[in-house]
Amino acid sequence: MQVRNAVFFLFTAVAIAYAQDTPAARIGLHTGLNANLHNPNFPQNPAPTVPVYGTSATSITGALGLMGHIPLSTNLALGIRAAYTSLGNAELAASNVQDQRLLPSLPHLELLPTIGIRNLIISPAFWLWGGVEIGIPLSPTYSVDSAGITTSENAALPDPQTRIALAVGGAYDIPISSQWILQPELSVRFPFTKVSSNGAFDTWTIPQLRIGLNLFYSFQKEQQDTTLRAPAEPFVRARVARIISISPSGDTTPVRAVKVEDVQYTEYFPLVPYVFFPQNSDKPASKYAALQLRETGETAPEDTLKDALSINNYILSLICRRMKQYPTARLTIIGTNDGRGELRNRSLSLQRAQTIRSELMQCGIDSTRLRVEARDLPEKPSAPNDPDGIVENRRVEFRATTPEILEPFQSRIGIERLATPDAVIFIPEVASSDPIKSWELTLTQAGRTLRTLRGEGTPRPITWSIRPSELSAQQVPIDYVFRAESVLGVSSESSGSIPVDYVSSTRRLQERAGNKTVDKFSLILFDFDSDVITPDNQRILDLKIVPSIKPGSLVKIYGYTDRIGDTRYNLDLSRRRAQSVMNYLRAKRPDARYETAGFGESVERFDNDDPTGRQLSRTVQIIIETVTQ
């Protein structure tokens, strides 16, 4: 019955493999070189004159056998091997009798079923596998040598046990022709059983390290082989497979249309109190706008900007203006380094702080109001072992004696066009004979370019956060063109459109009584991996947000994170951030209605390739909707 079940399982696995159009099955030869790590400790209760073998020893033996390999899916395979191997040929020295040695010979038939998975690390050719080895003893014997004289020769080992061991390893496919594959491997075996159950040989275990080499023949036909030869003609096929939004409950919803509505709207823009630097440089990143000498009342370019990321590129200009508005304020400028490639380079940290101090002095700030400090990692560093975190730790931090210096920058009040959903996610699909070099998504409306989003390498889901009044005040669809280009210069593009339902102020008032105002805040910037509302954040909540909440207002609080860390952890962190803010606001204004949700990193509100964008993503978005009669 067991044999019948095994045959049925094997047949089913082969059928599934070919039904799924997975890689072909293969058969091969296995050879190996073993390092057998003897751990003897017998006998356990010897008489005074009985030799005790308790000293570890290592023997080198070989292995030879056959292997089969049956793919279950593209990256999963069932394996089976049968091999002749030996665990013996070691010299076990007695610890209590001089020149007494036991010389075992332990041949085994090894049967090893395995499950292998590839494409997890390094490359698609690398396999990780594991299985349970069953070792059947083949007449094991031992000899005893005392002072060079053989006292017992080739005696049968009593009560040999079937060897049960956990086997794990890694292997790498090296194609040598269309159907032959050479596969070096390294494996380790951890035994669960002893060599013998006889009391005279108890306890004795033998872990094993094996360096192997496998030669496979693949049953795949030569014309079907697409992994060993490049196609005759390079190709790229690119399209947008889906367009979705994510609801507060975490569900994905297809975007059939975008609704645009005129509302009385207010928005504030938070400041990230940092300036970031390239590695080993004391000059700020090139994205930052150069400081220009202006009077405090003058209109500046940043006054016309409508998104937080662009505004933060003018942070030095904003700080300069505010330092002039508050002449008693003092500013501490703290230079830091990444603690890795810039490790213990505090002089670089100091140079960074002095560079910023010099720029602020040139715009008219007295040097006595500017204090510089230097340290290695920031006091609250971003993830110091993550590439994104390392980049964020190369910075200058600002601390002001007057809170207004670093408070949210700007408030816009007036009629604005808001989109629902306000974040649209494009899911690209690209097939290519060669790696993708770059991609581009261009969004237009009535011939006007709204946004061009670009990236390098294989495209990931692309989030378009629609800014207030970014869409036209008309019933005109949003057109998009998605383009991808391979490293060989081959490109492909596709296009489509999203309908727009524009609700003007007149239409909105006709459809429902009352007038809706929307206040939108993304002011709370949390520390890395934290849901704690700091005293600075409490001040912003009290001054900017609590006064906007009226009796009966609907307060929606949505939490976000950057992309650093585990996706599921970030989702939970975003929910905790939203809950912390709701608890704080509800204690102040219990007469409002509250709704919370966490999006984690699934909605990229700001560009996470930019360190400022990652900082801005550690936020909650607070939307206060109030309907007045």
What can you see in these coordinates?
This protein has 629 residues and is an alpha+beta fold. It folds into four domains: 223 residues, Beta Barrel (Porin), CATH 2.40.160.20; 108 residues, Immunoglobulin-like (Sandwich), CATH 2.60.40.3580; 137 residues, 60s Ribosomal Protein L30, Chain: A (2-Layer Sandwich); 117 residues, OmpA-like domain (60s Ribosomal Protein L30, Chain: A). The chain is built from nine helices and 33 strands. An eight-stranded antiparallel barrel has the order 1-2-3-6-7-10-12-14. Strands 17, 22, 29, 30, 31, 32 and 33 form a seven-stranded mixed sheet that branches. The protein has a four-stranded antiparallel sheet with strand order 4-5-8-9, with no helix packed on it. The N and C termini lie far apart (79 Å). The N terminus is likely disordered.
